[in-house]
Amino acid sequence: MILNFTKMNGAGNDFVVIDNLALDYSLSGEQIAKLCDRHRGVGADGLLAVEPAEQGADVRFRYYNADGGEAEMCGNGARCFGRYVSRLLDGEKNKITFETIAGTLRAEIIGEKVCIEMSEPFGLEINSPVEVDSLGVPVHNLNTGVPHAIAFVEDVEATEIVKNGAALRYHEHYQPSGTNANFTQILSPQHLLVRTYERGVEGETLACGTGITACALIHHLLTGAPSPIKVTVRGGDDISIGFVTINDRKFTNVTMTGPADFIFEGEIEA
After folding, report:
1. What is the spatial distance between Cα 204 and Cα 206, in angstroms, rounded to a whole number?
2. Pick the catalytic residue: 36, 115, 208, 215?
3. Would you say 105 and 119 are in contact if contact means Cβ atoms under 8 Å apart?
4. Do residues 257 and 237 lie in contact, with contact meaning Cβ atoms separated by under 8 Å?
5. Which residues contact 134 (CB under 8 A, 6 or more apart)?
6. Catalytic residue among 74, 80, 115, 215
7. Domains in the chain, start-ordered, CATH in brackets?
8. 74 catalytic per annotation
9. Using an 8 Å Cβ cutoff, are 13 and 76 in contact?
10. What's the pLDDT tens digit per position in 234-264?
11. What's the pLDDT tens digit per position in 35-81?
């Protein structure tokens, strides 16, 4: 089967994107993993597929990790998805709604950047019972579309991301599905530096949109830092996280604004 695709990246988090509005493609997990393989395929952190909406939105968002498993949501992927769909519709819409497993999201195209209105976070745990000996700091949890563990460290560059990330990802507290792991350094009250170990990629990625959103919200709860909060990711890009708090511990109007870039188009045998 010949697959037409577009390669995109959001702050260094890269994706294979396909138009499946006609439902011509039915890819197995093995095929998706091969497409995402950086040696034998296109190479990506995950695959995004545009499909027909089922509940009244403009389109349906399908996201698959690099291992071929479907995930609920991907923040950087959602920005790329929004810009891709806008181009797919000949640029006629700069505001797009799409259905995900995590709920219906909204994207607004602002030049080469995209603002995503995220689903409401849940599963908050401040100072969870999770301990990782090599970290030696408290671990907090929040689901911003997918589950995230967040640890604040003094020096994120000196932190062993893969070792500690894997320890959190497979910790018994998060089983059976596991979690993503984020390591956060406070640069100033409204500026964070974040590195992320992503479940499904099983390693560090250059950025994780839902992860940096979780980090910013937890930072607000711990320090009172106001919205918006700037987050610098491993790839060097800055992403802005906006939010409104409700009763101190709940959030609404959570937004993530950042880049979504086209890299190239092509076709490959899948």
Report:
1. 7
2. 208
3. yes
4. no
5. 160, 163, 164, 167
6. 74
7. 2-118+260-269 (3.10.310.10), 122-257 (3.10.310.10)
8. yes
9. yes
10. 999 999 999 999 887 899 999 999 999 999 9
11. 999 999 999 999 999 999 999 999 999 999 999 999 999 999 999 99
